[in-house]
Amino acid sequence: MLLPLVLLHTGDKAHGAELKTNYATIIYSNEELLEKFNQEIVLNRQLRLMLRNQKIFTVQDEVKSKVDLVVEKVESVLEMFPDILQFKMKVMATSDEVQQVYLAKYGRQVDHIAYYSLKEKTIYISTDDANLRVMAHEIGHTVVDHYYKNPTPSKIHEVLAQFAEKYVTEDDL
Ligand SMILES: [Zn+2]
């Protein structure tokens, strides 16, 4: 009776799906959302060339490759190569959803289109607002978080994430 289990596992859209990359577990609610997310993440020239060398057959493959390429680019921009880098990325539909999660967890109304939770090692990102800059910024926070053994002051965290965002999206560095 293996077959029904397999079907349940892949066809159960209500519970969403997960993609494992070298660094991330990407969690999303349905394939249409992932497809839209993939379209929003437009790589710059250098990263696009690197993407061409990867084996990509599906939207899932492309999203996985993009996330890992951005992780490695952020690491080299920041010159921070954490021994262990494992995080979750929750792909949400809208900034409203991101803000609802934030409100539920921290009891505070914010206007974030994405954020990184230090405690959960999780990036929450709105597909409506997603682009390379936003993703590089949040991955910047992730890399900084994994690099330092001690908690990094929030101002420094932000400066480093902004630095990653700026230089990941520039072609010639
Ligand atoms: Zn930030």
Mean of residue pLDDT?
A: 91
| Main β sheet profile | 5 strands, mixed
Measured between the Cα atoms of the first and last residue, the distance is 55 Å
Second rung of CATH, namely the architecture:
3-Layer(aba) Sandwich
Radius of gyration: 16 Å
- List low-pLDDT spans: 1-13
Structural class based on helices, strands and sheet pairing: alpha/beta
Q: β content, as a range?
A: 5-15%
The largest beta-sheet arranges its strands as: 1-2-3-5-4
Query: Can you count the helices?
Result: 7
Give the C-level CATH assignment.
Alpha Beta
| Topology as a string of helices (H) and strands (E) | HEEHHHEHEEHH
Helicity level: 40-55%
Task: Based on Cα principal axes, name the global outline.
Answer: globular
Number of strands: 5
CATH topology: Collagenase (Catalytic Domain)
Distinct small-molecule ligands in the complex? zinc ion
